[in-house]
Amino acid sequence: MRRSRHLSLTEGPLFPSIVRFSIPLMLSNVAQVLFNMSDIAVVGRFAGPQALGAVGSTTILVSLFTGFLIGMGSGVNVSTAHYLGAERYRDVSQTVHTAALLLLLTGGILAVLGIAATPLLLHLLGTKDELLPGAIRYLRIYLLGMPALAVFNFGNGVLSAYGDTRHPLMYLLICGLLNVALNLLFVLVFHLAETGVAMASAISQYGSALLIVIALCRTHASIGLRRDQLHMNAEKGREILRISIPSGLQNAIFAIANLFIQSGVNTFPAVVVEGNAAAANADALVYDVMAAVYLACSSFMSQNYGAGHRKRVRDSYLFSLGLSFGIAAIMSAFLVIFGHAFLSLFTKDAAVAEAGLMRLRVMGCSYAFSALMDCTIAASRGLGRALVPTVIVILGSCVFRVIWVFTVFAYYHTIQSLYLLYIFSWTITGVAELVYFLHVYRECMQGIRKPADSE
To answer: Would you state the pLDDT for residue 46?
Structure first.
């Protein structure tokens, strides 16, 4: 990969650079959402409702494992970007090689523990007896891909820190199309139902991991992988884990908190539950597009912090916050205006669509407020702080939600009162995250001696 293909994060007009950096990430995330929807569509249309239920019953657990690895990848991104900005290329190389081994090991541990605990976890989630055998098969096969998913997130974090978001998009599109083709092959031709969908996912994950490793091995830059340098550096390992573990736990804990929200939804008639499920497909679409900007925020802030560019550190946060808020507002407006058309993709029942539209209207007024929370967390992470933001988000967006379910929602018991917990939890958590970030920002900027306000 030639250097000219990579975007400089420390030079040039800042806002256009953040947009250019974010667009391939947005497309990657949207593609991933669409490919995941295709898994559900194939198994639902061609393997029957029982196979669909088996796959659907594992969603929370899949989110737990994949969310943790995505969070760890963002920790690799921050560490790599910081050293690149400071032009400490020996540290970059040590970080890359340590991270490669660390995430591969983490993916392997998650696979082994997850496969062993699959029946217990599904029982704890209350999976229906008739769905349990298929759910166990699906999850165990899916978890075989965890080492590959860990490696892909490692490579994505490294390449993004280097300013290359185009190659991960290309690899994801290739393997996403492979996933769809294998889904159809295994389900339609070999009649493997949920087993075939899981196999397709695992194979495509190893394909994306292979492509990103080949790319890193071929680059001659400091981020390149070299077999003779693959060893664990204890100091770099601790640094990566210090940022990665809180980030991974933050992603995983959200899935647990959502179980309590789902329990509240389940107290309503089936039409409301089905409408909520249909409308909830918008969440991943909006969140994942915004998440691209958050990765841009942490990447730009980390590199410019390492390079000593005070003004670009500050402006990276402000531009990213404004961009993510604007994107959420625009997407929310489209979802509300074209809500019926969006919901028609998932249901033909008018009553279900109307129930789903209720959720879209409330969430459409809420999505943008999550930007303050998530972008500020990314900014703190870009300055090397991950533990306290994670504690704040657990208290504000997880514990607070559980309390809301058992107090406000229990008192009013309307679906609107349940949906409103999102905007309240995001706003409260966002303000708390901002207070902490301002403290960290002042502290970190005092440590920068190099005046860099001339750019």
So the answer is: 79
- Longest CA span, the chain: 66
Give the three-class secondary structure for 426.
helix
Cβ atoms within 10 Å, residue 332:
20
Q: Which of 102-106, 194-198, 266-270, 290-294 has the lowest mean pLDDT?
A: 266-270
Structure tokens at 208: 């994306």
Cβ–Cβ < 8 Å for 301, 76: no
As a whole number, mean pLDDT of residues 85-110 equals 96
Q: Where are the alpha helices (DSSP H) in 162-233?
A: 166-184, 193-218
pLDDT for 291-300, tens place per residue?
889 999 999 9
Q: How many CB atoms lie within 10 A of CB 90?
A: 9
CA distance 102 to 72: 10
Q: What is the pLDDT of residue 449?
A: 57
* Band of pLDDT at residue 37, cut at 50, 70 and 90: low
In the chain, the amino acid numbered 273 is V
Instruction: Calculate Rg over the CA atoms of the chain.
Output: 22
**What is the token pair recorded at 260?**
């309590």
- Range 81-84, long-range pairs (CB < 8 A, 24+ positions): 81/9, 81/161, 81/298, 81/299, 81/302, 81/303, 81/306, 81/382, 82/302, 82/303, 82/305, 82/306, 82/384, 83/306, 84/161, 84/162, 84/222, 84/223, 84/303, 84/306
42 Cβ neighbours under 8 A, 6+ residues apart? 180, 183, 184, 187, 197
Q: What is the secondary structure of 60-120 as a DSSP string?
A: HHHHHHHHHHHHHHHHHHHHHHHHHHTT-HHHHHHHHHHHHHHHHHHHHHHHHHHHHHHHH
Q: Encoding tokens for residue 447?
A: 């440590």
What is the C-alpha separation between 207 and 176, in angstroms, rounded?
10
- pLDDT band, very low/low/confident/very high, at 4 (cuts 50, 70, 90): very low
Q: Where are the domains of the chain?
A: 12-234, 266-450
Predicted confidence at residue 103, as pLDDT, reads 97
Structure tokens at 143: 């978890």
Cα-Cα end-to-end distance for the chain: 28
pLDDT confidence bin for 184, thresholds 50/70/90: very high
Give this prediction's pTM. 0.83
Whether 450 has a pLDDT exceeding 70, the answer reads: no
Residues contacting residue 268 through CB under 8 Å, at least 6 positions apart: 415
Residue 18 structure tokens: 């953040």
